[in-house]
Design a protein that fits this description.
The structure is a homodimer of 279-residue chains. The first copy, chain A, folds into 2 domains: 116 residues, D-amino Acid Aminotransferase, Chain A, domain 1; 154 residues, Alpha-Beta Barrel (D-amino Acid Aminotransferase, Chain A, domain 2). The radius of gyration of chain A is 19 Å and the shape is globular. Chain A has 279 residues and is an alpha+beta fold. Helix content of chain A is 29%, strand content 29%. In chain A, strands 6, 7, 8, 9, 10, 11, 12, 13 and 14 form a 9-stranded mixed sheet that branches. A 5-stranded antiparallel sheet of chain A has the order 2-1-5-4-3. The interface between A and B is large, with 61 and 61 residues.
């Protein structure tokens, strides 16, 4: 597989990154995952916009732009012969001359672009529904940005996987009460029988798939409420949906020992979101 | 500068790490910083022990051992002509074939070893004392391990630096009350006029310097108490000490607008710790 790294196209299997790249030593970087659908990159503008916004927040130099990034993605897609898969972007604050938390004044940021096959997802899950496993959200306070500091996410998702689940449903605790945040790499929305309920953006990612699906729901006439969702009330929800760039809209049929049905609201949103991606 | 990477000695400036190394994409790695003093590596056994313990916790394969690591360090120290500086170790869960949170069953872990000059520290600070700047502790729940998920630490330390400070003094909030945790790459202890008070290990690093200094203090006859230290009570402390592998024992003379004196307890512990390192 070929990848793009700081201006060159190299083998993913070759040495590429310097030992003291701050992505490697300090988690000092940001990323995006964009779907590749028939050689196109749905919502790439939103993803690059979010990356650029976060790079400003963390003051990491961002020397690329939408056109350049899309052109590289097309080249990689063509070289790697991947018409459907994932586009991964990463920027970091570059390599230090000696490792030190303090930023160097002059630095060349690292930019990485990868077009890879879709990760292993059982295609049946979109018909039969996913199982989730609850897990404490141990993440930092920077979760409104897609930083590469993902070890707590990795632990959550692998824990769920080890229990036969597709994803973790993470929760934080406030005054002894647990509330839903998101998954290792997914967000969740609920249908309570009347309205669509989405956990409010409060140290969780402003997910692009979530924003698209909620706008579809609103345009279909659903009332959408963004608020804290307590773990206790999840069992009373009629439908649960998992959202992410790679999972799109996926029905959830089980959370620990609670069962949910793959209902008509989920079906409607799945269909409408598929149409939005294809168009 | 030459570094050791997975069995080879390479230039720190050369491409070394694969694009999809999980250290780079997921913060899926651990590290240690060990002082280099006259070509020796004080407390290397403790550091390697902690690294090995954490690697078991995160189930990252650890294929090196103390003897190997020390032999490589000696070689790097000699090649780089660094008799006094820093030894940096890092292990990660290796490079993925395609980026996916889920662990691959077969993988070759990444092992990196760097001997570098001491980072930029104003030598006067050990005489005149350091200034700290308070900053919210936004870190994850895995701070008892030295993971490379350090972006919140990096922000804290750079914020302090931008305000003319040497380090951040981070605090978390419980029921509206702020308590001291640690620094971006340091820990703190206090002398309240009678006892040594150290923030208890509760999602903060079991620092090796801290453990050595507290054991020196006990052997000198000081009572040592490990408990939650509230930010409100810090101003009543008689002496404040900053501890880390590279800072050793450093007097703190200012935290935001609060002044402290470089007192006799700090002086005693500094001297005794220097003796311990040299011997």
């Amino acid at each position: 597989m070929k990848v793009f790294f700081n201006g060159r196209i190299v083998n993913s299997d070759s040495p590429t990154i310097k030992a003291l790249d701050r992505g490697m030593t300090f988690g000092d970087g940001l990323y995006e995952v964009i779907k590749v659908v028939n050689g196109k990159f749905p919502f790439i503008k939103d993803h690059v916009g979010r990356l650029e916004k976060s790079s400003k927040f963390f003051k990491i130099k961002f020397e690329y732009n939408l056109d350049k990034i899309e052109a590289i993605a097309q080249e990689l897609s063509s070289i790697n012969k991947i018409e459907s898969g994932e586009l991964f972007l990463e920027i970091t604050r570059g390599a230090d001359t000696i490792r030190d938390h303090i930023f160097e004044k002059e630095y060349a940021p690292t930019f990485l672009e990868v077009v890879q096959p879709l990760r292993r997802i059982d295609a049946n899950l979109w018909q039969t529904g996913a199982k989730l496993v609850t897990y404490p959200d141990m993440r930092h306070g920077l979760c409104e940005h897609k930083t590469i500091d993902l070890l707590p996410n990795v632990l959550a998702k692998n824990y769920a996987h080890s229990k036969g689940g597709y994803e973790a449903l993470m929760f934080r605790t406030k005054n002894g009460e647990k509330y839903v945040t998101e998954g290792g790499s997914s967000s969740y929305i609920f249908f309570d029988g009347e309205k669509i309920v989405a956990p409010k953006i409060d140290n969780i990612l402003p997910s692009i798939t979530r924003s698209k699906v909620l706008s579809i729901a609103r345009s279909m006439g659903f009332e959408v409420i963004e608020r804290r969702v307590w773990l206790d009330e999840v069992q009373r929800m009629k439908e649960v949906m998992l959202l992410s760039t790679v999972s799109k809209v996926m029905p959830v049929v089980k959370i620990d020992d609670m069962n949910f049905s793959f209902g008509s609201v989920t079906k409607k949103l799945m269909t409408a979101f598929e149409e939005m991606i294809s168009s």
